[in-house]
Amino acid sequence: MTNILVLHGPNLNLLGTRQPEVYGKMTLDSINQELTKFAKQQNVDLRIQQSNHEGDLIDAIHVGRNWADGILFNPGAFTHYSYALRDAIASVALPTVEAHLSNIHAREEFRHNSVIAPVCVGQICGFGWHSYLWGLQALLQHLAKK
Predict the structure, then answer these.
(1) Would you call 23 a catalytic residue per the annotation?
(2) Least C-beta-crowded within 10 Å: which of 9, 59, 93, 95?
(3) Which of 23, 62, 80, 83 is catalytic?
(4) Is the domain covering 2-145 a CATH 3.40.50.9100 domain?
(5) What is each CA distance from 47 to 61, 63, 123, in whole angstroms?
(6) 100 catalytic per annotation
(7) Rounded to an integer, what distance in angstroms lies between the CA atom of residue 93 and that of residue 91?
(8) What tens digit of pLDDT does each residue of 112-133 get?
(9) How many CB atoms are closer than 10 A to CB 52?
């Protein structure tokens, strides 16, 4: 069985009510349910965590190195400046896909740069909750090639 760590960064717990014109109306729980449903069909075990705290996300990445085969990660605003999360991903050497609900490259200029992307196998953004689903699919395809 393949084990995937799914991490949601800051403010994603507010999905469904937080700027629905940008992030959509789907709640984080609904996204997690869709991912879990897909994962079961693929014989994949997901462990899902959301945190508004950088250190909690780093700790989850560190723990994941002992059991996960890969990481699906929406770092939220940490995308643009968290070298600590970047270093955590690089240090555990787990294939990671960065996913974003909105197209970060079409938003405010400060959102255009991801310090996380260079240590990931890829980035999917701009497709609402499907960015997570397609990110998970891409990660599983990447792992199948190894």
Answers:
(1) yes
(2) 93
(3) 23
(4) yes
(5) 11, 11, 20
(6) yes
(7) 6
(8) 789 999 999 999 999 999 999 9
(9) 16
